[in-house]
Amino acid sequence: MKKQIILGTLAMCMIIAWSLATLDSPAQRSEARRPGEAFQPADFGKLIGMEGFSNTLLQNHFKLYQGYVKNSNLLDEKLNTMLRDGKTDTPEYAELKRRFGFEFNGMRLHELYFGNLGEKKELDPASPLYAALSRNFGSYAQWKKDFMATGTMRGIGWVILYLDPLSGRLFNEWVNEHEVNHLAGCTPLLVMDVFEHAYMTDYQLDRPRYVEAFFKNINWDAVSKRFP
Ligand code: FE
Q1: Which of 6, 95, 141, 156 is deepest in the core (most CB within 10 A)?
Q2: 198 Cα–ligand 1 center, Å
Q3: Tens of pLDDT, residue by residue, the chain (228 residues)
């Protein structure tokens, strides 16, 4: 009897250990998200202390990002409910559908932006990305000039260094707000936020100084990983 209890307890422990070992980490879960599963905000706290970015600015920016995650989940849920309830033929559905692109892109672009910050190394001149920038723009310096010029254009939105996988060409693209002017089928490599909340706290209207500070903190390893 005692032996049976011991064997039973052992078997139970093994089952629990196996269940824990097969649980996905949060990162794995976000990579393989199932339909209906909520988006989870990523933690970019490691950026606190980054030179040229005050804690207040970064903390507020993280809060704004978390709002996009929350609203993407909210809209996803509402749209699914309306689909289930047969309410797709309504102006409300159409407006929420349009709004989803704003919130979802707001979420993803912030993840790309924070994800390509936090290092202080220059891009390696021997790297394939450096070679591609030089080939596409004539030189690395010319690419940087174009990226910075795009970043100081009037308006609010994003500057994205895009790779077109079909042609192999690279573009510095201006995106209005979060959802207007994306290049279809292209891969975002380097993403810079130029909404006023990204710099006003620290630089007021001096956007060129913010763009310089952004450039000094680019995580080129992260950017290079996005370049196939
Ligand atoms: Fe932002």
Answers
A1: 156
A2: 5
A3: 455 544 444 444 343 333 333 333 344 444 455 666 899 999 999 999 999 999 999 999 999 999 999 999 999 999 999 999 999 999 999 999 999 999 999 999 999 999 999 998 899 999 999 999 999 999 999 999 999 999 999 999 999 999 999 999 999 999 999 999 999 999 999 999 999 999 999 999 999 999 999 999 999 999 999 999
- For the domain made up of 128-225, the CATH class stated in words is alpha beta
Question: Domain ranges in the chain?
Answer: 54-115, 128-225
Contacts for 136-140 with beta carbons within 8 Å, 24 or more apart?
136/169, 136/170, 137/170
- Output the pTM of the full model: 0.84
What's the fold here for domain 54-115? Helix Hairpins (1.10.287)
Pure H helices in 22-54: 26-31
* CA atoms of 51 and 120, how far apart (whole Å): 9
C-alpha 199 – ligand 1 centre gap (Å): 9
Give the CA angle between residues 27, 116, 166 to the nearest 5°: 90
Ligand 1 mean position, distance from CA 93 (Å): 26
- In the chain, at which residue ranges do the beta strands (DSSP E only) sit? 157-164, 169-176, 187-193
